[in-house]
Write a structure and sequence with these properties.
Two copies of one chain form a homodimer.
Chain A: E1 2-8, H1 12-23, E2 28-32, H2 40-45, H3 47-65, E3 71-73, E4 76-78, H4 80-104, E5 109-111, E6 113-118, E7 121-125, E8 129-138, E9 142-144, E10 157-158, E11 172-176, H5 180-191, E12 195-199, H6 213-225, E13 229-231, E14 236-242, E15 245-250, E16 255-258, E17 260-263, E18 267-269, H7 276-279, E19 302-304, H8 315-329, E20 344-347, E21 351-356, H9 359-364, E22 369-375, H10 380-384, E23 391-397, E24 403-410, H11 413-425, H12 430-434, H13 445-455
Helix pairs in contact in A: 1-8, 3-4, 3-5
Chain lengths: 464, 464
Amino acid sequence: MEFDLVILGAGSGGYEAALYAVRRGMKTALVELNPASVGGNCLNKGCIPSKYMRYGAFLVDRFKVMPRYGITPQGYVLNYQRLREGRDDVVITIRENFKKFAQHIKLPIIYGRGVLRDRNTIYVEGANETLKAKYVLLATGSHPAAVGDLQPDGKHVLDTDQIWEIEDFPKRVLIVGGGAVGVEFAYIFKSYGSDVILVELKDRVLPSDDIPEDSARFLGRKLKKLGVDIRTKTSVESWESVPEGVKVSLTDGTEVIADFILLAVGRRPNTDNLGLKEVGVEVNDKGFVKVNDFAQTSVENIYACGDITSPLMLAHKAMYEGKIAVNHMLGGQDLKRNERIIPKIIYSAVEVASVGLTEDQAEDLDYEVSVGTTSFTTNPKAMDDGENEGFVRIVADEDTGEVLGCHIIGPYAGELIHQVVHLIRDGKDVEFLSKNMYSHPSLSEAIGQSASEIYYGPITWVKR
Amino acid sequence: MEFDLVILGAGSGGYEAALYAVRRGMKTALVELNPASVGGNCLNKGCIPSKYMRYGAFLVDRFKVMPRYGITPQGYVLNYQRLREGRDDVVITIRENFKKFAQHIKLPIIYGRGVLRDRNTIYVEGANETLKAKYVLLATGSHPAAVGDLQPDGKHVLDTDQIWEIEDFPKRVLIVGGGAVGVEFAYIFKSYGSDVILVELKDRVLPSDDIPEDSARFLGRKLKKLGVDIRTKTSVESWESVPEGVKVSLTDGTEVIADFILLAVGRRPNTDNLGLKEVGVEVNDKGFVKVNDFAQTSVENIYACGDITSPLMLAHKAMYEGKIAVNHMLGGQDLKRNERIIPKIIYSAVEVASVGLTEDQAEDLDYEVSVGTTSFTTNPKAMDDGENEGFVRIVADEDTGEVLGCHIIGPYAGELIHQVVHLIRDGKDVEFLSKNMYSHPSLSEAIGQSASEIYYGPITWVKR
C-alpha cells in the first residue's frame, strides 16, 4: 500500500499528527503495536489514568474544606475497585473513540511493529505488511527506566507501566523519584489513605531546572503537611522481599517496610530496532533521534516527534511536534520546535505549571531579570473556593519587558498558564499583560497583578 | 484638603482606580459611605459572597460524582449558619485587607456621602469635609431595581441587598429574574436542598443578547435536570402574605407558595443627588453618565466608571474603566473603553463565559461568520474530572479569520475564557489560536480545537 505519510506509533504525537495530516489532505496510515495500545503511554498508562485518580484524590481532599461551606460529611468509604473501574472506563472510552474516529475519517491503523526497510518503506511485523510512504513520522514514544537493583517485577518493584494493575490501595508505598510522576502518585495514594514515603536523590522534589525552586519547595511543604514522608538526597541502597512486601534500606541509614516500591525515575526513548541506523537516521548517545527545528531527521523525508526527540517527554510536546512535522512536509515553515513555549504541568497536592524560563535560567542566559509575584492567599476567587494557596510568578526581561517565563502554583494552574503560553509565543511584554482585561473575581487576575508588579513597580513603591 | 484625584465610591472600580492612581504617583483620596461598605456591592453584596455560596453548592454537587472515584459518602448534614459564617468571614477579610492596604500606601478613605460642589470641589456629608481635586472619578455604583408590586421589604420580597441576611436555607423560594443573579441563586439554593421556582419574562434564562442562545439553553436544561422549576415567558401577577411566607399568582395561571420572593431583576445606576447636573455632568434618560472612550464625562476633569456608565454592570468593567480614566488623566490614550473585550461570566450549575460577539450579533453587524465548536464531552481532562459537559464556541470573521467572540460553557469557563479575551484584544485570528500550544490533557485544548475547526475546516471534511 502507498501513502503520503506513514506514522510509526499511534500515541499522542502520532495520533494528533495523523488527524492533522488527514485534515491537510494527506493519505495517511498509522502503525501501532496492538489495538490496546492505541493512544500510547499518555492515554493508557500515563497522564489520562493518573489525572483521573488525581481528581479522586482532590475530591477526598474536599472533605476538609466542606465544613466551612456548611456541609458536614458523615464519613466516607473508599473502594479501590470502583476507582479503577471509573479510571479504566475513561481510558477505554477515549481509546475506542479514537479508533472509531479514525475509521470515520478513513485513517487506517495497521497493527504490528513497524520497522524501516528503507527511507520510503516500512515493514509491519505481525501484520506482515509492507507500506510505501513519501514521508515517515517516527512517534514511537518511550518506556520506563529502571536503576540498578530496582528492576520492575510487577510485584515488589512496580514501574509506571505496572502500577495500574494493583488490586487495592497500598497500606504503605515507597515511591522512588520525586519528579512529576512521583509527586502525583504520592498525592493520590496519600489522599486515599496510604502511608507514603517518597525518596528523591536531589535536594528537592521536582528537581527539574524548568521548575523554579519556589514552586518545588512549595509543593514539597504541602505534601509534607499532608503527611507524605519526603526524603530528599536519599536513594535506595538495597531491598529484599519480606512477608509484608519489601524491606528497603535507604541511603539515609533507615529501613522502611512497604507493600511495594513504585519506580518513577524517568523514561527512555524507544529508538532501538526500528531500522534507524540502517536508513541513516541519526540518533544521539542517549538514544534520542536528532531533529531540526521542523522535527526533520537527518533523512529528509523522515521526521520524528515526542519522547524520542528530547528528554522533555510531554504529550503536548509530541502533539505539537507532530503538527510541525506534517506542516513542514507540506511546505510550511511557520511552525517550529520551541521548548520555551511548552508548558510543564504537574498535578499533585496543588497544580504546578511552568512555561518559559525560570529566573535562574534567564540569568544564566545573561538577561537582566525582573520578577513579579502575586499570592493566591488574598485572591478573592481563590478565597471563595477555599483554595487560596500558591502564587503566580512572572519572569521578564528588565530591558524590554518581554515575558520570559511564567510559573504558577495553585488552583487550576494548568489551565491558567495557557493565557501566558500564548502571549509568550507572541513575544508579548509585561505592559501588554498588565493592561489586559481580567474578570473579577477570577484566579486570572493574579496574572495581571504579577505583570503590573513589574511594569509599574511594586505597589508599595510609594514607601521606598 | 487638596488631591490630584478624588474618587467617589470605594467599590471595585473606585478601589482599583485608587490603587492604580497611587501607583502612578497621584495624590488620591477615596470617598465611601461607611467602613462597612468599602469594597462596594461586588465585595459586600454581590460577586464575592455569591461565589462563596456557589462553591459550596458545587461541593454538594460533587457527592454525585464521588462514587465513580471510589468514594462512597455516608451522607452529610447542611448548616446554613456555618455557610454564612464562612462567607462573611471571606468578605470581611477582604474588606479589612483593603482598608489596611489603603492605610499602608497612605491612601485616605473619607467616610460619608460625597457630593460635587463644583468641578473641583467635593463636599463629604457626614465627614463634613470639603475636598479639592484636580480630577474627580465617579464610581458610585448601582442599587437593586424593583418592579411594580414587588417592592423589597426584607421579609416577603428580598432584593439582592437583602438576601444575605436570611437565617436558614428556604424550604421553597421563588426567584424572579433569570439573569446572572437569578440562575446563580437558583443553583445555590437547589444544591443546598431548597425547592426553587425561577420565573423569567423572556423565553429563556440568561436572556442577554451577549450570551448566545446555545449557552443559555444549555444552562436552562442543566438547571431543570437538577430540579429547578423554570418558568419562562412568565412573571408575577400578584402576591400576598400567607403563614408559610408568600402566595404568588403567576401569569402562567398557576399559584405557588414560597418562603419568600428573591427579586433579581437588574440594577439602577446611583447618579441621583450627586450634584452632577449642577456641575454640568451629562446623564442620559436611564440615569447613566455619558462618557467617551476614555471614561471622561462631559466635564473635562470629571470621569466615571462602572455601573453608572452603562447597563453592563460588572466589577471588572468598573475596574478597567477606572484604570482607563486614571491613565487618561495622566495623558495616556492607549487604554480605551471597549465592551467587546469584557468577559461576561455566570457561575451557576455550570460556568458560562462569553466575550465579544455572538454569532447573531456578528451577523447583525454584516460579518460573514464562521463558527467552530468543540464539546467537552470527549475532552480527556474534562472526562478525568467527571465534568465533561458543555462546549467552546468561537465566532470568527470568515474573510479575515479574526476572532470576534468566544463562548464557553463548562468547567472553569470563567478562567479559560481569559486566553481568548487577551487574544481578541490583540486582534488575533483563528490561525493564531489554532497554532498555539495547548497542554495535554487540558480543558484549554478545546479552544485550539474550535479555532482549528474554522481555520482548517471541520475534521470530517474528507467525507463531504
